[in-house]
Design a protein that fits this description.
With about 150 residues, the chain is α+β, with helices and mostly antiparallel strands. It has 3 helices and 7 strands. The strands form 2 sheets. A 4-stranded antiparallel sheet has the order 1-2-3-4. It is elongated, with a radius of gyration of 20 Å. The model has no long low-confidence stretch (mean pLDDT about 85). Keywords: Membrane, Transmembrane, Transmembrane helix. This is PH domain-containing protein.
């Protein structure tokens, strides 16, 4: 049985809202530069424009797939087309635990793997999730058969 979680809709909506705000800031920057002649206003507007542009570039949505024996985690930009390569593709035999945690305004997925060199903890930023999305992700992750390290 294969289950899948993604926050694509929420991230796409955020992307378009930030894109509109960035466009408005660009217009304000141009207006301030040509008509206002105030270097302070231009610097503030350009700074806000640049910060929003960086947010647009760094924005990604998460895909978590749990198939019969493998856990796969992928990130993707909302505008990217083509193949999507996983950042984590690991068999359940190597997964010893997972945890969903919240810090400030963001959620994180922590996965602990058992490797030949000991335990390794990986953390993935998920972003903001609604209660329904969090429950959906927990339901997807509940399909993982955890394997504790044998002594």
């Amino acid at each position: 049985m294969k289950t899948k979680f993604t926050n694509y809709k929420q991230v796409s909506l955020t992307f378009y809202i930030v894109a509109i705000i960035t466009s408005v800031l660009f217009l304000i920057t141009c207006f301030a530069y040509f008509f206002e002649k105030s270097i302070f206003v231009v610097c503030i507007a350009f700074g806000l424009f640049f910060i929003n542009l960086l947010k647009l570039i760094k924005l990604k949505y998460l895909i978590v797939e749990v198939s019969t024996f493998v856990l796969t985690v992928k990130y993707r930009h909302p505008l990217k087309k083509g193949p999507n390569f996983p950042v984590l593709d690991v068999p359940f035999a190597n997964v010893s635990s997972y945890d969903l945690s919240s810090f400030l305004l963001s959620n994180y997925l922590s996965i602990t793997l058992s490797t030949s060199h000991g335990k390794k903890k990986l953390q993935y930023k998920i972003g903001q999730l609604s209660k329904a999305q969090k429950l959906s992700l927990e339901k997807t992750l509940s399909g993982i058969e955890l394997h504790e390290e044998k002594c």
